[in-house]
Amino acid sequence: MTARALGPERYAPLATFWSLLFVAGPGFFVPLEQEVGRALAARRARGDGGRPLVLRAAAVGGALAVCLIIATVPAAGPLARRLFAGDSLLVVALMAGLAVYALHFLSRGTLSGNGRFRLYGFLIGIEGVLRLVFCVALAVAGVKAPGMFGLSLVLGSLLAIALVLRGRRGLLIPGPPARWSELSSALGYLLAASVCVQLLLSVGPVAVQLLATATQRAAAGQFLTARVIAFMPIFLFQAVQAPLLPKLSGLLAAGRRDDFRRMVLRLLAGVVLLGACAVTATALAGPWASRLLFGSGYSVTSFDFGILSASCVTFMVAQVLTSVLIAFRCYARMATGWLIGAVVFVGVTAAGTQLFVRVELGLLGGSVGSALVMACLLGGVTRRHTTPTDAPTSEATSRPRTA
Description:
- It is a multi-pass membrane protein.
- Its main location: membrane.
- Keywords: Cell membrane, Membrane, Transmembrane, Transmembrane helix.
- One of its GO terms (cellular component) is plasma membrane.
- By secondary structure, the chain is mainly α.
- It has two domains: 1-183, no CATH class; 187-403, no CATH class.
- Helix content is 78%, strand content 0%.
- It contains 15 helices and no strands.
- The protein has helices at 2-46, 51-72, 76-83, 88-113, 117-140, 146-165, 187-202, 204-211, 219-230, 232-241, 244-253, 257-294, 302-327, 331-351, 355-384.
- The protein starts with a helix and ends in a 19-residue tail after the last helix.
């Protein structure tokens, strides 16, 4: 809808804004959601109220959001010029989005930790509906300013929070004081890994916009629409991935090593097999699907679709290995894998010349690098591991948020 309403050139800065917000927002605040949900659930099981914990988490999330916004202020000019085609309203939307995302993911963690899963799903659903309604209204009104669409996306999230939480009782029950350790001693590793995960997942259009010449002003929008199609398997993978970590942790805790190994190998084989089919289908049908969904101005080549799809498959392999390492409580090894993948992405992209191909190969190289590093680190763990006494429940980096 938005891509057709704005056209390729005007859509490019909005695509860049959305990708950048998705790197920073979910990247920094998803671990907070998951740790709040885990800690609140543990308190509920003990019969303790969670208000002190939520307030402490709110302080962490608020401080992080303020730091990110402060860091954005001096970069506002360069951001507007280099990434947003001079639209300073998108910079305002970015800063507002950081604050709203902090509240959004804290709210999600509070809902899940209190067992309010119906409200959790309602929050996600109404957020999407409100964004769609606002974008349709702007398109019907003939608005052509990308910044207005950016603000509408942020406003949709804020209103969804207000509608879902208004008048809800029992979410902030008084309880014993919360210690910092309740939010997890591994939060730093989870945060670093989460940012790198979202970087490899969403940074492509930002890199394209930075590297594009004056004659390639529509490139970021074209790249984002191609990435949306090529990364469709990620959405399907979420259904498999959601119960994966609890299942793996349970097998380890029960000492069922053979079942654990068979489950991981079957899942990896399935991802590779289905991924090969997805790469072939996307390379063949991707250009046609792009023209059908977004219009003729957004089409890219079959070669581009093939590389993007391959990067999606290797990204899913890395996600499986992430769940395995978290099940073993090897947070540092997991974070190291994603950090090296991010470094590989930067290096490969910087070394290339052709705009789309250099970014696509960077994404592919980053995902392959992360998967290989985690596979190597996992080998050492499985040889010497002893069954953990306390299986983790955090899924901060094993469930990436897709734009």
